[in-house]
Design goal:
The complex is a heterodimer. In chain A, 37% of the residues lie in helices and 22% in strands. In chain A, the strands form two sheets. Chain A has a seven-stranded mixed β-sheet with strand order 2-1-5-4-3-8-9. Chain A has a two-stranded antiparallel ribbon with strand order 6-7. Chain A has one domain (2-198): 3-Layer(aba) Sandwich (Glutaredoxin). In chain A, strand 4, helix 3 (113-120) and strand 5 form a beta-alpha-beta unit. Chain A is of the alpha+beta class. The N and C termini of chain A lie far apart (44 Å). The longest helix of chain A is centred in the N-terminal third of the chain and has 26 residues, at 2-27. Chain B is mainly beta. Chain B has one domain (20-146): PCu(A)C copper chaperone (Immunoglobulin-like, Sandwich). The radius of gyration of chain B is 17 Å and the shape is globular. The relative contact order of chain B is 0.25. Classes of the chains: A alpha+beta, B mainly beta. Chains A and B meet through helix 1, helix 2, helix 3, strand 7 and helix 5 of A and strand 3, strand 5, strand 6 and strand 9 of B. Strand 7 (158-163) of chain A pairs antiparallel with strand 6 (83-88) of chain B, so a sheet runs across the interface.
């Protein structure tokens, strides 16, 4: 139990370091330049889409994209983030017509392709839902330094703690920046505009 | 004439009045319970409200129930270093004497799970709050659009999707 707690603290600590490093780098005008050495964020994503087909982020070459890790049993952060990204994609039309948002579930047990398809039906069609085996999802999360864990609830079910940053990836699939859930709408839209034009 | 005036007033203040709905139980005032419209097919929804305690004794919100959900729990949520953390408050929430406690997005909330039927913006949700001292209180949650961060009067409400600068 203590070992588990240690792992958890180490994981949170690791994320804290990444966030601090990213913030410093972003504030110093770093977005658009290669990330600092030793801070590679993101990588190819190879999972199953909500249509049940294999999806590889290599298919997005030439277009910037956004990656967000979440789960459908999430009451606030996930639906709000997808809602805001859908709204921003529309606001940035037609420039954003080929931009994709990858919604990667960190709860593959419950989020099957069919469940993701239902859930995403009312968001912008440019949002692609992705799931896979627990190992595949873990690998994708690891490459983005995304943390997640199950939190049991009293009804025998569970909810999830998870990194709530959205990752902006440039047209070469390289890390460009992040959207923070707590930033205001204007800042997020500006960052997405920059991603489209410079990323 | 009085009827027309009332209609006009209702048209002007209709939504504001609805947004200001409140419920009382003993020394507690429960202000504007609301639920954020979840995406279709979603199995969970967040519920929010404000509880003020004008009494000299603390009370405690112990549990919540609603026919909309198989399970309703009291949760806390926070974002630390980019990680969203959520957890059940098994002992509920204390409402100290003279204090106001807000359940709101990014913070304390009611988590409705195992939704029994689709939630619609035009259909309020009946629920019951159970307090240690004040007992059970029947309330009605309004449903606010997806993306709402707080229930706002119509005149301040940005309903115009895509009308970004």
């Amino acid at each position: 139990m203590n070992a588990l707690r240690g792992v958890r603290i180490a994981a949170y600590g690791g994320i804290a370091l990444v966030v601090v490093a990213l913030t410093v780098w972003f504030l110093s005008g770093g977005a658009g330049k290669p990330p600092p050495a030793g801070l590679a964020i993101g990588g190819p994503i190879s999972l199953t889409s909500q249509t049940g087909e294999a999806f590889d982020s290599a298919a997005l070459a030439g277009q910037p994209y956004v990656v967000f890790f979440g789960f459908t049993h999430c009451p606030e952060v996930c639906p709000t983030t997808l809602y805001e990204l859908s709204r921003d994609l529309k606001a940035l039309d037609p420039e954003s017509k080929d931009m994709r948002v990858l919604f990667v579930t960190i709860d593959p047990e419950r989020d099957t392709p069919a469940f993701l398809a239902d859930y995403l039906a009312n968001f912008d069609p440019r949002v692609i839902g992705l799931t896979g085996t627990p190992e595949q999802v873990a690998a994708a999360a690891k490459s983005f330094h995304v943390f997640y864990e199950k939190v049991p609830t009293s009804d025998g079910s569970y909810t999830m703690n998870h990194t709530a940053l959205a990752f902006l990836m440039d047209r070469h699939g390289k890390f460009f920046g992040t959207l923070d859930y707590e930033e205001n709408d204007e800042v997020k839209l500006q960052k997405l505009t920059r991603l489209l034009r410079e990323g | 004439m009085r009827f027309i005036a009332a209609m006009a007033l209702a048209a002007v203040f209709g939504f504001g009045a609805a947004a200001a709905h409140e419920f009382k139980a003993g020394t507690l005032t429960i202000d504007h319970p609301w639920v954020r419209l979840p995406p279709p097919g979603a199995d969970t929804a967040g519920g929010y409200l404000t509880i003020s305690n004008s009494g000299a004794e603390a009370d405690r919100l112990l549990s919540v129930s609603s026919d909309i959900a198989g399970v309703a729990q009291i949760h806390d949520m926070s974002i630390e270093n980019g990680v969203m953390k959520m957890g059940e408050l098994a002992d509920g929430i204390e409402i100290p004497a003279g204090a106001t406690v807000e359940l709101k997005p990014k913070s304390l909330h009611i988590m409705f799970m195992d939704l029994t039927r689709p939630i619609r913006v035009d259909t309020p949700i009946r629920g019951e709050l159970r307090f240690e001292e004040a007992g059970s209180v029947a309330v009605e949650f309004t449903v606010e659009p997806m993306g709402a961060s707080e229930p706002e009067p119509m005149e301040d409400h940005d309903m115009s999707e895509g009308a970004m600068p």
